[in-house]
Amino acid sequence: MHKICACLTIFEKTKFMFQSYQIQSKEAYEKAYLNSIQDPEAFWSEIASNFSWHKKWDSVLEWDFKTAHTQWFIGGELNITENCLDRHLPDNKDVAALIWEPNDPSSPNVTLTYGELHAEVMKFANVLKNNGIKKGDRVCIYMGMIPQLAIATLACARIGAIHSVIFGGFSAQSIADRLEDAAAVAVITCDGANRGAKTIPLKSVIDDALVAAHSVKTVIVYAHTHTAVSMHKGRDIWWDEEMNRMDELGLITCDAEVMDAEDPLFILYTSGSTGKPKGVVHSIAGYMIWANYTFVNVFQYQPGQIHFCTADIGWITGHSYIIYGPLSAGATTLMFEGIPTYPNAGRFWEIVEKYKVNILYTAPTAIRSLMCFGEEHVNGKNMDSLTVLGTVGEPINEEAWNWYNEVIGKKNVPIVDTWWQTETGGILISNLAGVTEAKATFATLPLPGVQPVLVDEAGKVLEGNGVSGNLCIQFPWPGIIRTTFGDHERCIQTYFSTYKGLYFTGDGCLRDENGLYRITGRVDDVLNVSGHRIGTAEVENALNSHTGVIESAVVGFPHDIKGQGIYAFVIYQGHAEDRESLTRQDILLTVTREIGAIAKPDKIQFVKGLPKTRSGKIMRRILRKIAENELGNIGDTSTLLDPSVVDEIIVGRLA
Ligand code: WTA
Q1: What is d(CA 520, CA 98) in angstroms, rounded to the nearest whole number?
Q2: Nearest CA owner, ligand 1 atom 13
Q3: Are residues 57 and 128 both part of a single domain?
Q4: What parts of the chain have a pLDDT lower than 70?
Q5: What's the 519 CA to ligand 1 centre distance in angstroms?
Q6: How many angstroms is it from 393 CA to the middle of ligand 1?
Q7: Using CA atoms, how far apart are residues 477 and 461, in angstroms rounded to an integer?
Q8: Which helix (H) or strand (E) holds 387?
Q9: What pLDDT is stored for residue 11 in this prediction?
Q10: Atom number of ligand 1 nearest to Cα 423
């Protein structure tokens, strides 16, 4: 166990400009914003020069939204792990890079200094190489929230392999689809993961996935929960044995592979309005600079601070604000294995007190759920160390914002409401903590480099303030999505063809009288359940794969804790009502098998028919109104093939 270097506290009181590009006043924000719009190339070139490069770029930017083509820092060469690790060693080798808090509060925690994390990453990079994994190969990582997950991710980046981290809640079928799509050559996993009172058998899920995925040649297994697993000869190897072998072979250091700025860094699968998740690809340099720039500015990071992002590394928030943002800034990142309510609903606040956390970054769902447990879990915990509170992933309601502000921040800690997406790589719209104004439920202002526009359904740009529309971005920022893996056309279709010349976010948005932005939620067929993106078509496919389901339609409904819940209308063959509860459970189990427990509908209503137009299209608008209990506001049903189905559905509506 290592102590966090005492010298780190010296910056606590006085705020100093950590980087030349740290914005510390409203005027500086306005100036930076203006510069970034007037001369983006000069602006980003200046910022990029603060990083460590093997070769400087030849030109800064090339782009064409018509073909979804964006390249930044063209011709530049670097390795992101040198920026996240090596460059901090001369001055900060003994500074804590990663603190790990285990699921069980009585188990020992772990702190890895920059020196130690660097050594582990290099050694594991050698394990990868020794097993034939090389630059450009796709490696899937399916692990719990343990330090080895961060080590594995960085080791891939060290050798130029493309990582694809899959959230531990996805099923074998989902993993198989992703492995196949990426033609992954290796999987890194654990025997199991701890989540609250449960142990999740990760290796066993991988074994099931690998029945269908044939490209995988190697599975590296880290023994964490020490539960029994099957080990397949010629394919499965133990993490610890491999690491020990590197010691024996003297393969301790590993030079970073020199990568092109535009080489892919990772693939992260995310849901859209079609039935199949897509592999969002980010490239190295632009993503790194965006993750770093937004981390430093939005959270107003000061050296020595401890940053606690509660997301899972299986989602983009974990990639950008547990790993790449904080580590590229030399910060101490805190990684938590467990859940906010285990062993009780005071766990987050205990962690804040225990490590003197400065920046806490979490999701509205977590805030709403902890709010319900009452203030007794917060009372008595010393949280004076907090300097910033962040939220991400879904719109935050005013009540939750106020609770976060009053009960956690004691009205003394700025809240940043950060809007962004898997595709954007990092935060695009947010106030800068304590620098630009916060407004409850508003993400507020675009970061430098971000040019938002609102459009109406027809694509007409809505000028001026006090307007609502669909949120688009009209100019590339360094962290923008580069492609969807293996299918560039899909990237063009999904993001760049709805509105000509614009990147379309899929979100609705209001720009208020003062020009502040408020995200109102998805306008496409994507649900946001507990901050997790789930496509309605994906859930429908899973429902329809059940033998008895003839057809289904899925919509969202407002949910007090999760933000949105999933409401499924299902036409079932025969008589579901004979064994209704069991049929429901069968269907839920089918969804869990097909996608994972996160996609299970909260409500399943059996119906005889669905509201369809004469051309056979399901009128989701009507189903949405029913699910939301807006029965007086259903609108015109006269164009339906059979308007009587609506009455029948209303009668059977589940409260
Ligand atoms: C939603 C998560 C309101 C939005 C980083 C977006 C938000 C989707 C906010 C992306 C916010 C994210 N306020 N809504 N501060 N942040 N969203 O890809 O609908 O998992 O399109 O990325 O989450 O989800 P994703």
Answers
A1: 35
A2: 395
A3: no
A4: 1-15, 576
A5: 9
A6: 4
A7: 20
A8: none
A9: 40
A10: 18
H-type alpha helices, 85-141: 89-92, 114-130
CA of residue 404 to ligand 1 center, whole Å: 19
Q: What is the pLDDT of residue 248?
A: 98
Q: What is the pLDDT of residue 383?
A: 98
Nearest ligand 1 atom, CA 533: 20
Given this model, what pLDDT does residue 575 score?
Answer: 72
Which of 278, 294, 421, 439 has the most ligand 1 atoms within 8 A of CB, as the residue to mutate?
421
List the residue whose alpha carbon is closest to atom 7 of ligand 1.
Answer: 394
Shared domain for 59 and 192, answered yes or no, is no
**Residue 113 identity (one-letter amino acid):** T
- The verdict on 215 and 285 lying in the same domain is no
Query: Which residue has a Cα nearest atom 8 of ligand 1?
Result: 421
Q: Are 165 and 266 in contact (CB under 8 A)?
A: yes
Contact 320, 289 (CB under 8 A): no
- The helix (run of H) or strand (run of E) holding residue 205 is helix 202-212
Distance from the alpha carbon of residue 363 to the mean position of ligand 1, in angstroms: 10
Which residues have C-beta atoms less than 6 Å from ligand 1? 270, 315-317, 392-395, 417-422, 443, 505-507, 519, 522, 528, 533
Residue 6 alpha carbon to ligand 1 centre in Å = 37
326 belongs to a structural domain: yes
Contacts of 49 (CB under 8 A, 6+ apart): none
**Which residue minimizes the CA distance to atom 12 of ligand 1?**
393
Distances 634 to 564, 567, 626, 647 between C-alpha atoms, Å: 20, 17, 7, 11
Instruction: Report how far ligand 1's centroid is from the alpha carbon of 392 (Å).
Output: 6
Total tally of structural domains belonging to the chain: 3
525 C-alpha to center of ligand 1: Å? 14
Within this chain, do residues 52 and 103 fall inside the same structural domain, yes or no?
no
pLDDT tens sequence across 32-82: 999 999 999 999 999 999 999 999 999 999 999 999 999 999 999 999 999
The pLDDT tens digits of the residues spanning 252-279 come to 999 999 999 999 999 999 998 888 899 9
Report pLDDT for 274: 82
Residue 500 lies in a domain: no
Residue 132 structural domain: 86-256
